[in-house]
Specification:
heterodimer; A: 294 residues; mainly alpha; ABC transporter involved in vitamin B12 uptake, BtuC; two-stranded antiparallel sheet; 2 strands; globular; B: 386 residues; alpha/beta; Rossmann fold; 2 domains; five-stranded parallel β-sheet
Chain lengths: 294, 386
């Protein structure tokens, strides 16, 4: 097989993984935009999405879209509880305090998931059972197309939400200056709650979409969260488009690195890329230095 | 009033005593029990090993005691949990040897924990029967250390001899980047020349990786006639799925690390056609009646499933064999650690769950590659390859 087909195959793999990372990165971005903190439980929310979907769909004949919506709703509810009972009661919400809380929540969610679903890896059915798509002599898993579609769909929706709706605009105002937004009559607490619900919903959607490819285990959230975080930093904290672009860059570089250099260096390549970015352009590709976000 | 109460209490106590005396008991074993220590990873990441091992050991000890013990002495198991942690394993074995004063130790369940406790068993001159697979445990031979599971080397030998028979000369290997995968890779590379096999690609993947298409794409561009994947779930299932996705038609071989129904569940349709070595317990009902292990296996499975009401695991047998071997040695040697060790080393032809054991001064594992059978997954079921 010639190099071109090989590289095409690496790109397919990279784009699939990139879309997954981008989807997770979007979740980080939403919460960051409302609270200026990184939610380290984001990966666990993705895991929960996948797990709930598996619990709902395995052994039952629940139609896929219903399962999808139900999982997203359940995990959004968990996200709301998460904000309401761990973030809101804080008297002096410092950034570091909230970050530590999110780490605590991530450990809690992982533990609970282990109790409910056990330590084994679980798998779920792909969305469509069509055979792999052949492009030249490279092949693409149909589930990849689903993931890509969902990522772009969500990106468009988010863009519309932030630019066109009054709630979205209020959220942006919160991100820009929370105090001023509050003075202008925006219920900032509600905006924070909403951001947690939104990013949980997103995480759940990501989880449901990726489990047919990645499978699901209680501890999958950690590494997914880390990769998503890398994507966020690459693309620029706070930028929705940046997160997705960062995800794609990370996925493609990983795949090319694993394929052309060495598969044992796969993770190392990703983190070298991250470090390099932090040295050269700490605000990320789409980040604008502390002036304007989103 | 007070006086009455006291007499009342005295009478009641008396009655309770009488009742207790009258309860028919299990045959009273007057002799002092033989204490045997067990350290398994009952909880933690390797609980899938330690939990069935603990259950199997308890079950067998009860059976032995019901038969009247060993030379009239009942067995008393002292079981500790390592949680899969080498530090805890070291603490446990010290406690067993110096505090509980056990005659011998069964376990630990994992290779890293076993390697950590070997020096202590050696120094305290206490027989240790490990339930871990790593080849380093018994090679080179350590005076006081034995083990019951089959090794990677035997699994590789089994796969390679099949390849030799079927004229497969060029293979690509893809291994997981942890102790299990590294050990497998070492054996795969080391034994290849012996079977006239050339390794044309060596790839690896992380234990949590979810996409192996880049590695497999690379393998696809080589002249490999078969792929050997060495790992534990879920990685190998991803490899199987990705190979199907990439439309690779060459056969895929897996290790015994995925020999469980879980793998078929994870890999789904992609599992079909995969060939792997496994202990006979997975296919106990299908192995020929001439196989010396068959009755042992069927009895073990029946006992385990009826006692614990769960499906038998492929791993509990390691402790079952360990305790059985120890019982044989104890019967001849009595409560003397050095004699127990000597008797263990002399055991020949013991038919166990994991294979037929033939210990010798130069082999403290005692198994050959016949302890494995090769199976092919056909329509989601295991099928023995003759």
């Amino acid at each position: 097989m010639d190099l071109v087909t090989q590289i095409l195959q690496f790109l397919f793999s990279g784009i699939t993984n990139g879309a997954i990372y981008g989807l997770i990165a979007l979740g980080f971005t939403i919460i960051y935009n409302a609270t200026e903190v990184i939610n380290f439980a984001q990966g666990e929310l993705v895991m929960l999405g996948g797990m709930v979907m598996i619990a709902l769909s395995n052994g039952t004949s629940l139609p896929l879209p219903v399962g999808f919506i139900l999982s997203v709703l359940v995990v959004s509810g968990i996200g709301a509880l998460f904000e309401r009972f761990t973030i809101r009661p804080l008297k002096n919400p410092t950034q570091i305090g909230i970050i530590i809380i999110t780490i605590g929540v991530s450990i809690l969610l992982k533990g609970v998931a282990m109790f409910i679903w056990g330590k084994e890896t679980l798998s779920s059915r792909p969305f469509s059972s069509s055979p792999p798509i052949h492009i030249g002599s490279s092949t693409l898993d149909p589930q990849s197309l689903w993931i890509l579609g969902i990522t772009f769909g969500i990106l468009l929706l988010l863009h519309f939400f932030y630019q066109k709706t009054i709630t979205g605009k209020a959220m942006r105002a919160c991100a820009f200056n929370k105090r001023a937004a509050g003075l202008a009559g925006i219920p900032t607490q509600k905006m924070v709650l909403l951001s947690f619900v939104l990013s949980s919903a997103l995480g759940a959607a990501a989880g449901v979409a990726i489990t047919p490819i990645t499978m699901c285990s209680y501890d999958m959230g950690t590494i997914l969260g880390l990769k998503g975080f890398c994507a966020v930093v690459l693309g620029g904290l706070g930028s929705t488009v940046g997160s997705v672009v960062g995800g794609f860059i990370l996925g493609i570089v990983e795949a090319l690195g694993a394929g052309l250099i060495s598969s044992s260096l796969r993770d190392a390549i990703a983190f070298v890329l991250l470090l390099g970015m932090l040295f050269v352009r700490p605000q990320g590709i789409f980040g604008i230095k502390e002036v304007k976000k989103i | 009033m007070k006086r009455e109460k006291k007499t009342m209490i005295a009478i009641i106590t008396g009655i309770i005593f009488l009742v207790l005396l009258c309860i028919p008991r299990a045959p009273v074993l007057a002799a002092e029990p033989y204490k045997i220590g067990c350290i398994f990873s009952v909880t933690g990441p390797a609980s899938f090993l330690g939990d069935p091992e603990k259950k199997s050991a308890i079950m067998l000890a009860d059976q032995i005691n019901k038969r009247g013990g060993i030379n009239g002495h009942p067995i008393k198991l002292v079981i500790y949990d390592t949680e899969g942690d080498p530090t805890k394993a070291v603490l446990n074995i010290n406690k067993l040897i110096f505090h509980d004063k056990v005659l011998a130790v069964i376990g630990p369940s994992r290779t890293p924990t076993t390697l950590a406790v070997i020096p202590i068993a050696q120094r305290a001159q206490t027989p240790l029967i490990s339930c871990a697979a790593g080849i380093k445990i018994t090679q080179p031979v350590k005076k006081w250390v034995f083990k019951t599971p089959q090794t990677d080397a035997m699994a590789v030998e089994k796969i390679y001899s099949y390849m030799q028979k079927n004229n497969i000369k060029k293979v690509a290997i893809i291994t997981v980047a942890n102790a299990f995968g590294e050990s497998g890779k070492e054996q795969l590379v080391k034994q290849a020349p012996k079977f006239g096999i050339e390794i044309v690609a060596q790839e690896s993947f992380g234990p949590k990786d979810t996409d192996m298409t880049p590695q497999l794409t690379k393998i696809r561009s080589t002249a490999a006639e078969a792929v050997v994947c060495w790992g534990t779930n879920p990685g190998p299932a991803v490899v199987a799925k990705n190979m199907k996705q990439l439309d690779m038609k060459i056969p895929l071989f897996q290790s015994h690390g995925v020999a469980s129904p879980k793998f078929i569940e994870l890999a789904g349709d992609a599992a079909n056609g995969i060939i792997l070595p496994t202990g006979k317990i997975l296919v106990a009902k299908d192995i020929p009646d001439s196989d010396p292990q068959k009755p042992v296996l069927l009895k073990y499975i029946k006992d385990y499933e009826s006692r614990y009401q769960t499906n038998v695991s492929g791993f509990g047998g390691y402790a079952y064999d360990g305790l059985n071997l120890l019982a044989i040695a104890l019967k001849k040697a009595g409560p003397d650690k050095a004699k127990i060790r000597d008797e263990l080393e002399k055991i020949k032809g013991y038919k166990g769950v994991s294979g037929v054991f033939n210990f010798s001064p130069s082999d403290h594992n005692g198994l050959t590659m016949d302890a494995f059978v090769l199976v092919k997954i056909v329509n989601g079921k295991w099928q023995i390859i003759k």
